[in-house]
User: Fold these one by one.
Assistant:
Number 1:
Amino acid sequence: MNDCIFCKIVSGEIPSHKVYEDNWSLAFLDIAPSSYGHTLVIPKDHFENIYTLPDETLARLALTAKKVALAVKNATLCDGVNLIMNNEKNAGQIIFHAHIHIIPRKENDGLKLFPHGSSANEELIILSEKIKEQIKD
Ligand code: 5GP
Ligand code: ZN
């Protein structure tokens, strides 16, 4: 992917502050952090989002995210960590090379997460059936 910023970070064409690397994945500091220690974990190969990530790559990514999340927690002395993955534009994805955000949290840090709504039990029954029908192996 010639125009992909994250591919250029993998190749070294664009500089980054790397914190971890293995054969499949790379972790580096976010250039515009939501909090102190905000880190991104990406596959080295280009895949657009979670839908197209091969299973093994996704599994490796998850293992890297776990390893790096703990390191970020210990390094920043945060009290919690959010792991977030934006998939597609309407979910906030700006860079279309799959990535997991590691966002350190502290008490009263002012970061807002998703608001909660409400739902009727009937609605949840119908919805859970709809989703179950769409589960593919
Ligand atoms: P998205 O909204 O696609 O889930 O998140 C993309 C993230 O990449 C953003 O948090 C943004 O700050 C970060 N980012 C964008 N360009 C660069 C860059 O050139 N270097 C680094 N380190 N992070 C970047
Ligand atoms: Zn890419």
Note: Residues 1, 4, 6-7, 46, 97 surround zinc ion (ligand 2) (CB under 6 Å).
Number 2:
Amino acid sequence: MEATEQQSLDVERVREDFPILEREVGGEPLVYLDNAATTHTPEPVVEAIADYYRRYNSNVHRGIHTLSQEASVAYEDAHDRLAEFVGAEHGREEMVFTKNTTEAENLVAFAWGLNELGPGDEVVLTQLEHHASLVTWQQVAKKTGAEVKYIPVTEDGYLDMEAAAELITDDTELVNVAHVSNTLGTIAPVSELADITHDHDALFFVDGAQAVPNRPVDVQEIDADFYAFSGHKMLGPTGIGCLYGKRHLLEEMEPHLYGGMMIERVTYEDSTWAELPWKFEAGTPVIAQGIALAEAVDYLEDLGMDAVQAHEDRLTEYAYDRLSEFDDVDIYGPPGDDRGGVVSFNVEGIHAHDVSSILNDHGVAIRAGDHCTQPLHQELGIAASVRASFYVYNTTEEVDALVDAIDAARDIFN
Ligand code: PLP
């Protein structure tokens, strides 16, 4: 099959910003298709980090000296930039910087869940949740006596919405759903789920780790109460994630970490808390990472999130179609034209780790394993799978290289 589509992103131009893509692996050009795990960092983002350390490295909110003021303004503005990117109503007050999506999940689970949940309460997740949310709510439920229920996934990889409507009841306190599944690519009907959740006066939390990087997201349009994502999956550095929360909810919540920076007044007897979002950012925060993530957002917006999504959709569908040419490749999840930018599969008779190893010999980097969705893999009746995932710098030629390398793996094992 020929790659025929017109790409509205100038991918060759984009690739110039990612020197890492010029690397060779095992004597072959690197084909990096592990973007759902982490994406690469373009030069302007690397430069933003270097510029911070070279010119104005300083702690924030503390000093009145020039460097501290410059760092504080850049760091605070970065919150506004991220808030704006996902359509928050109240800017920085609704945007907490965390270490990653996992920490954002834990923040809500500990700051809200531990105080609000109790016996008789229910938290509703889906069968396809990442361990970041699944393990977190499972454990907080154990501590509080609440119960976790799971919306099932249908045979063709969609969320069973009839079951969802029955599982979400007046006993439900919170529903937590992955916007895009990192294993199946399933796109959750988040607005519909938000409506059902709110009809029962429960809170709606979206794990957007695989959505914000790839598609325009508007938290107000979704009517999410909380929305979490990670910087390193959207061209930003590691060590920063974001938690959007509706202002009135964040105001009502107690902090989950205590210490410097998050206080207003402290005596030997008691303390009061700083204004939002600082109340949730105890200690010296993720300064360089936050500033660099704002730069990544500028980069993505220059490309245009509609163009990013269109590119992602085209590559995903192309990969799905090409992999479907093999009779002995089992692909998991919805059809190629109705999923986020991941394609998980197995080659019959070859363990996912062996496939991965042979692909690596061809320079192709993919993920093999359970992708932090062990229960979902158990549900699918498999221990592991191979996952290819795409981003703004990938090409159809790279998908072809993946397919050729899979063919080589089949030859070796047959
Ligand atoms: N949620 C989903 C859907 C993910 O794909 C991931 C990472 O792969 C996470 C949560 C956790 O992200 P992080 O490891 O950055 O906390």
Note: The chain has two domains: 5-32+304-413, 46-301.
Number 3:
Amino acid sequence: MTSAPASAAGVCVRVPAKVNVELRVGPPRADGFHPVATVYQAVSLYDTVWVTPAADWSVELSGRTTSGVPADDSNLAVRAAMELAKAAGVRERAVVHIGKEIPVAGGMAGGSADAAAALVACNRLWGLDWGIERLEPIAARLGSDIPFLLHGGTALGSGRGEQVVPALTRGTYHWVFALSHGGLSTPAVYAECDRLRGSSLVPDPQPSPQLLSALRSGDVVGVAALLANDLQAAAVSLHPGLGEVLDAGLRFGALGGIVSGSGPTIAFLAAGHEAALDLAVALTASGTAADVRRAVGPTVGAHVDVVAGA
Ligand code: ATP
């Protein structure tokens, strides 16, 4: 459900979280970023971002997961709105109200989602009518996952993850997410990955052709068997309780489980709707996770939900 700010004039955009069905990470590049080959999927956990015309920029927060989200100009959604204003030569300002449901610092790209939503919302609010291809360079400058959240669906990400090509999939994937107490910093997880790898030779990251074929044919068992995340060992090393959560989910009937992105959220793939319900109930009852959420993928990227008059 869309949570409206006090003044509901303006534009509301709904934006999903993401899971990395596969995340392959290469050795760090000269600019410090790691090249990745990833298969993103947008899942039905949504934040909403309302933008309302105002005399100055500000951020308002509501919803389930606001702890740790900055309420000043460092918020990625406001930064995205400001960057779009600059790029488009717009002098307007806005209140950016974020209804937060996506876990924070959980490896589900919540901040990136809000930034993508702010771009789409301001694009509409200011009547720019820019296509995704014109918003994408701004998105990519602000964060590697933001371009994907403009697209949604299932997609291959390369470069730092910012180069996105849609991937064909069949069927609906039923995910159960086990949230942890506390988050993990994405740069810290990449640094730990480098530390664990030491001087071993790391190949250029490539997506698995078998996984892409399983996604194309809607083979959920095949997809579950091929879930892969090169950051998993690093996330588990920094957050040792995650191994226990993974074991519990598999014991309770998940077809497969993986650390989501840089963690610490664990994403389990279930055989269908009923199986996902059963798994969520069992995980909740076991007390191994701080919170448990169900979602389906793929779903659409950032999209206008409401346009309201003053
Ligand atoms: P990713 O998977 O893209 O690495 P994440 O899901 O692990 O990201 P986020 O929820 O995006 O993590 O938050 C990472 C940090 O970004 C937060 O700790 C917070 O300080 C900062 N941040 C800035 N803007 C936002 C926002 N709108 N929502 C959440 N966090 C934000």
Note: The chain has a mean pLDDT of 94.
